[in-house]
Amino acid sequence: MKYQCLIVDDDKLIAESTAEYFNMFDVCTGFVLDFDSAVRFLDENEVSLVLLDINLDDRSGFELCKLIRKKYDMPILFISARTSDDDVLTALNIGGDDYIKKPYTLNILLAKVKAILKRYEAQVSHLNHATVGIDKNESEKICIRDDLYLDTKSYRLLNGSQTVMLKSMEYKLLLYLLQNRNRVVTKDELFGNVWDDNFVGEGTLAVHIRHLREKIEIDATKPELIKTVWGVGYIIEEFTDEKI
What we know:
Layout: E1 2-3, E2 5-8, H1 12-24, E3 29-32, H2 35-44, E4 46-47, E5 50-52, E6 55-56, E7 59-60, H3 61-71, E8 76-80, H4 85-93, E9 98-101, H5 106-131, E10 141-145, E11 148-151, E12 156-159, E13 162-165, H6 168-179, E14 185-186, H7 187-195, H8 202-216, E15 226-229, E16 233-236
Helix pairs in contact: 4-8, 6-7, 6-8
């Protein structure tokens, strides 16, 4: 069966009430209460987005997130009463797309989920359409450096003979920076035009930038492509051979 959202939370009242609310507004949602049930649910159903609590009785949502990321690429939103910066950064570093702190307001959470689903499902539809009989010679490619290209038809990086997958937000962020080459793009501009989301913080942006650098830089610890303008934002300058 196809679900738009899966809620994984060991608090049955929260999980059940949130799923019921989402279903009332036509977001097909299921819920499970523990680690193993989540694994089975994902194996048996198609899911577009996961809302994941950190505390799952004797198991961890962090552990489940890492397991999901090995098999699936849907958005993962952590929902937790834990509010430390360490927890937020851990969640984002292991593959979470965002971190929502409890208690949350159902109507705001629903709006956020709908916005993410709209972007994700549009990307999946585009990708499925683009990859049917795709001819690499006909793909629309933007040169990043040497033989590294961003393919805007398949949402992939083409690195010589290798293909590198991008998560939805990584693709949007890289494309926006490339479309605005040679000028500093402020953090607020990225929040407004890439995320279109007032709930995103600078930590989320920094993590996505780091993940992008790991995929496109020769040495991610010494970035030469995505440069930081401290206190302002980021810039990708026009590529020349002398820079590499």
